[in-house]
Amino acid sequence: MMVFVHGGVPGITPYASGPHIWGPLPKGALAVEVRGHTVDAMTASVRQAIKGKCHLVGHDLGGLLALNLAIEAPELVSGVTAVASVAAAPTGDGVPNLTLAYPPEPLWSKHSQRWALERVSYSHAHVSDELVNACVSAAGKQSPMTPREYEDEFVPSLMKAKSRFYEVCRSEGVKVPCQVIWGSHDPLTSVDQGLWLFRGLAQKQRAAQFHVINRAGALPFREEPAAFHQVLAAFADAV
Amino acid sequence: MPLPQGKWLDVDGLRTRYYEAGRGEPIVFIYGGNFGTGDSASSAYTWSENLLPLSEHFHAIVFDKAGQGETDNPRNDEYTMAAVVRHAAAFIRALKLPPVHLVGHSRGGYAAARLALENHELVKSLTVVNSGTLSPGIGTNEVVLAKPPYPAGTRECVRWVYQNYSFNPGVVTDEWVDAVMFTLGIPKYQESVRKMTLGKLGSKLFLPELAREKRETLQWINEGRLQRPIQVIWGFDDRTAVIDRGIELYNLFSCHERRALFHVINQSGHFPFREHPKRFNALIRRWVESLA
Question: pTM for this one?
Answer without folding.
Answer: 0.95
